[in-house]
Amino acid sequence: MFNRTRRPERSDLNNGVRSPLLEEFRANKTRKWELRNLFGHVNEFSADQHGSRFIQIKLDTATPEEKQMVFDEILAGNIMPLVTDVFGNYVIQKLIEFGGETERNAIFEAMQGHFLILSWHMYGCRVVQKAIEYITPEQQSQLIAELAPDIMKCVKDANGNHVVQKLIERVSPDRLTFVEAFKGSVYDLSTHTYGCRVLQRCLEHLTEEQTRPLLDELHEHTANLMQDQFGNYVVQFVLEHGQPEDRARVIAKLRGQMLMMACHKFASNVCEKALMTADSESRRLLIDELMTPKPNGVSPVQLMMKDQFANYVLQRALSVVEGDQLQALASRIRPHLGSMRKFTAGSFNKHLTASK
What we know:
Mean pLDDT: 91
Domain PUM-HD: 17-356
Oligomer: single chain
Keywords: Cytoplasm, Repeat, RNA-binding
CATH architecture of the domain at 1-135: Alpha Horseshoe
Pfam families: PUF (PF00806)
CATH superfamily of the domain at 1-135: Leucine-rich Repeat Variant
Shape: elongated
Distance between the termini: 68 Å
Subcellular location: Cytoplasm
InterPro entries: ARM-like, ARM-type_fold, PUM-HD, Pumilio_RNA-bd, Pumilio_RNA-bd_rpt
């Protein structure tokens, strides 16, 4: 019924021909149009760029009778072409938002059996997301049951991942049975452009019982995830929103590797986040590590000041350092400012001034 790689043709809805009424609507800007003027042509107008926008605006202030007229006419036909239409999907979303139980049930039943394909569709996924916000818990469970066998495909789909995120955000955790499928795939999800977003929603909204296996699995790969273009965001999320023990486990993986991670394009972001979220003692240990000369006498501070990524980590350290450690760090930075490029030296001077 649907082709996820092809946008529905206009002929799917209007046979490529506009009715005289729609032609007049597009041409006559002086006439005061009302929803009642569209009677018999609501579906056609819904699939037209200007007509769809008109219906959406009017539904915001329409009378109950006018809304019912629109609902009845759309639901009397096959709504699926509108669900996947570039303009029509917005009207269906309005129906879900403003309709009553009868209208929402009718839309849900029309989409039932097609939720997987709709979730992969550029426009259909928007209607599914809107439906998730308004359907009953039992209907949410039915929707989940349709997606569950292919949940990993949904997670990794450009459109489907938004549906999965919406489910995690809006559905009671005890109904999210598909989360079991994520166990054993945390590294795979964390390093995927869409999977990393879904995993973060899991850590944000699920129960401790559901997230603990995912977090324990994540901790096994922390060092590698820090250096991944997508995984670093998941690690940062744990640092910012995780439990103290999870934050401590991430910071422990940074200990002894701060310089190397600070010079890495992606891991440097984790280093900054760690400096911002660590408790005072952990932060002190991380900064001490940055100030301690290597066995060959090389100063990590000097290396970091000249590195395109690490210099930001050092600036972050300067902005969060506390107590006597501030002067110690500042004394290691100042001697090297003269050899820095003007704009970089200026950034350090700004932090040094602010820290006084």
